[in-house]
Design brief:
mainly alpha, 2 domains, globular
Amino acid sequence: MTGPERVRRSEPEAPLREQQQEASEDAVMTRIGQAVILLHAGDREEARNRLGEIWSEIGADGDSLHRCTLAHYLADAQDDPADELAWDLRALTAADCLGERLGEALAGPAEPHPAVRVFYPSLHLSLAADYAKLRRPEEARAHLARARAATGALSDDGYGNGVRAAIARLERRLAAEAGPAPRPFPEQA
């Protein structure tokens, strides 16, 4: 067949391909979600294995949203605080890449896209907690300040309030661990 008849039959193929691509991408997020359920149920090892398998499939150059989500949850599945930090840093890098890509496409390169800004309070909070576990309080405070500064992107809902409360808890903990201020030398008193 040639002419208009052929065109009409091929037009539905493009949307079908797009739907298949979206379904494929949703399948990755579904698999991530299934592994996160295991993680929250306490099966850290199986969650870590499944998330790691997905990471191997998408690779370090895969979709930024997938990498950010995977790395964020892979961090939570780690037993070693240094490994947790490494995964949280990967999540932040992926969010930066996603923000740059969306920002350039929609708003220009100056600011991350609003849809990505909502990630930063949690990402920086996770990094602050990692640094606190590693007894690196200055880095912890720096990321905690970034988390606090980014909370304007959060909604006034359960998630946003939960992140803000977690920031406040870690701020109190770091303040309590700081101990008394250093005493001056005798000649400075």
